[in-house]
Amino acid sequence: MIKGESTLVGGALARRLPSLVRVVLVSAVCCIAAAGCGGTSTGPTGKGAASPSGGRVPVVAATQLQPVLPTGLNMPADLSEERTVHTWDLTKEPSQCQDEEWPDGWCARAGAVGLSAFTNLADQELGIHLVTFPDEQSAAQAFKTRDKSDDMGHYPGPAGEPVYTLDLVAPSDNLLWTGRGTTFRQGTVVGRIEYSWKPGTHVPPDRLLAVTRMVIQRIDEKEKGLNPTASAR
Questions:
Q1: What's the predicted TM-score (pTM) here?
Q2: What 3-state class would DSSP assign to 200?
């Protein structure tokens, strides 16, 4: 169900939904979290260097990305069973970027990828996939060139920016699962959140948005030099 998870769990839950890529595009949702949607850096910034955008510190390295990833303590109580919470340094493990199914062009420039995956061990799963870039311009360009072929709606966001929505499609070998998701950019980080479930499962209508807001806020807190504490509980 969750990409990057095939070696982490067994049985039916180990089956990923590889077509859960390019999920709901929510660039404006970033702003809902009162975290903003990143700055407008005027040039590249090195790892750990201060960003020109209001003195923010860009999240680039795996060590910076790790505290951004939520754990089971940050997730809704009924979806808090951790499968994994992990980051990879792409200078050491570059293939992990493709394994997370980010575009090759992004992987060539990315600094780190991260994954937080959760389940209720019954009928719901959620994966949070993050990829970092060396500066905001690179992240913004990557986000701009995202594949929009699956976008199934266009709604104005709070800041007048577009919000794209689409239904996720289960592969032929797992027709019992469906889902939705979001993709966003915050500063130097592009994120993809995938939420899948069995038909008939009670799914809180605001859950995906609440988790998206939480992740955006955690990135924002880290950029401000704070400890990420945002939670969806």
A1: 0.76
A2: coil
The secondary element (H helix, E strand) that includes residue 216 is: helix 207-223
Tally the residues of the chain: 233
Pair of tokens at residue 6: 């095939």
In tens, the pLDDT along 37-60 reads: 443 333 333 344 444 456 889 999
Report CA-CA distances (Å) from 119 to 23, 57, 65, 91, 196: 19, 32, 22, 30, 10
CA–CA dist 208, 195 (Å, integer)? 7
CB of 153 closer than 8 Å to CB of 166: yes
Q: CA torsion 129→33→166→72, rounded to 10°?
A: 40
Contacts of 197 (CB under 8 A, 6+ apart): 123, 124, 125, 177, 178, 179, 203
Provide the CA 77 distance to its chain's centre, in angstroms: 20
State which H helix or E strand residue 194 sits in. strand 189-197
Please, which residues bridge with residue 184 across strands?
A: 191
- Name the E strands within 41-187: 81-89, 112-119, 124-132, 154-156, 162-164, 167-168, 178-186
Q: pLDDT-derived band of residue 209, with 50, 70 and 90 as boundaries?
A: confident
Q: Tokens standing for 61?
A: 């390295």
Cβ-contact 123, 198 below 8 angstroms? yes
Identify residue 168 by its one-letter amino acid code: L
